[in-house]
Amino acid sequence: MQGANFSAVTEFILIGFSAFPHLQLMFFLLFMLMYLFTLLGNLLIMATVWRDRSLHTPMYLFLCALSISEVLYTFTIIPRMLADLLSTHSSIPFKACASQMFFSFTFGFTHSFLLTVMGYDRYVAICHPLRYNTLMSPRGCARLVVWSWAGGSVMGLVVTTAVFQLTFCGSNVIRHFFCHVPPLMKLACGNVSTVAMGVGLVCITALLGCCLLILLSYTCIVAAILRIPSAEGRHKAFSTCASHLTVVVMHYGFASVIYLKSKGPQSLEGDTLMGITYTVLTPFLSPIIFSLRNKELKEAVKKTFLSKLFLHSS
Questions:
Q1: Distances 90 to 80, 100, 172, 177, 178 between C-alpha atoms, Å
Q2: How many domains does the chain have?
Q3: Counting CB atoms within 10 angstroms of each CB, which of 44, 145, 194, 274 has the fewest?
Q4: Which tens digit of pLDDT belongs to each residue from 129-154?
Q5: CA distance linking residue 174 with residue 182, whole number of Å
Q6: What is the pLDDT of residue 3?
Q7: Number of Cβ atoms within 10 Å of the Cβ of 40
Q8: With the C-alpha atoms ordered 211, 44, 75, 19, is the resulting torsion angle positive or negative?
Q9: CATH code assigned at 54
């Protein structure tokens, strides 16, 4: 059997940041600050929603679930990345690499599904306000959150199983800073085009499905808003969607670049910088956007935490 001569790979070497040897300390400090801010921002959102009873609504339940998925997604990738930036030998065991891929895809797709659910929530609130309490009941909202997490877990399992059932031989050097599908596929033996096409098709179908559902929701939302007679009413209705829409455009914008980019030769520098956009930059910006562009949440943060902070300081 031809595969009998292949030596089993027990670990992988991550060389994503080797393209920037003189910038690694600067990257470490920058990404550590961005990671801490990401954690703080998401924890602040969750704590505010938990403590302020006026925010105990479906929209903020989904926002909390989104923050949890974002915290877990960044925890899967960034701490190891920060450790590797300070290390001279950036290796990851075979099983740890599989685990990282599973959890990054699970939490990443859970994030996409929750954004879709939030779009549906805004559609019901604006297009069917009289039926909102019925359609978005606590039990119904809980089911949507559970299905989002279940869907993300299935995606993580499918992708990870498909990739790690391949045989890896020869080089064990991953041209990235975490265990991502494209660079791992290049290390597999034999003809992997069928698996690569299957994984790509599953991911693109899921992302496009979510994107189309969100687009459909916002088409109906825009049509409903345009029927509102007063400019103030139109502005108020759209302001409830602004933060979600901004995050959706950012999330799917970066995702489309990653999954639909050219399959030709890519530079290590380009792959690394592109990876930073969706592992560090997007999670960093999301809580800022939700906090600053959502007036209700911004006021609740001020009331719940900043006022108490000023009282203690005085």
A1: 9, 15, 12, 9, 10
A2: 1
A3: 194
A4: 999 999 999 999 999 999 999 999 99
A5: 9
A6: 42
A7: 11
A8: positive
A9: 1.20.1070.10
| CB environment 178-216: b (16+ within 10 A), e (fewer) | bbbbbbbbebbeeebeebbeebbeebeebbbebbebbee
Are 128 and 217 within 8 A, CB to CB? Answer: no
Q: Which amino acid is at 267?
A: S
Structure tokens at 287: 């809580």
Whether the model pTM is above 0.70: yes
The pLDDT score that the predictor gives to residue 254 is 78
The span from the CA of 223 to the CA of 121, in Å, is 16
Q: Which residue has the tokens 């040897």?
A: 21
Handedness of CA 188, 191, 197, 202 (dihedral sign): negative
Domain assignment of residue 30, yes or no: no
Q: Is 87 helix (H, G, I), strand (E, B) or coil?
A: coil
**Considering the domain boundaries, does residue 50 fall inside one?**
yes
**What is the domain extent for residue 254?**
41-259+267-301
For 111-136, letters b (16+ CB in 10 Å) and e give bbbbbbbbbbbbbbbbeeeeebeeeb
In a domain, 118, yes or no: yes
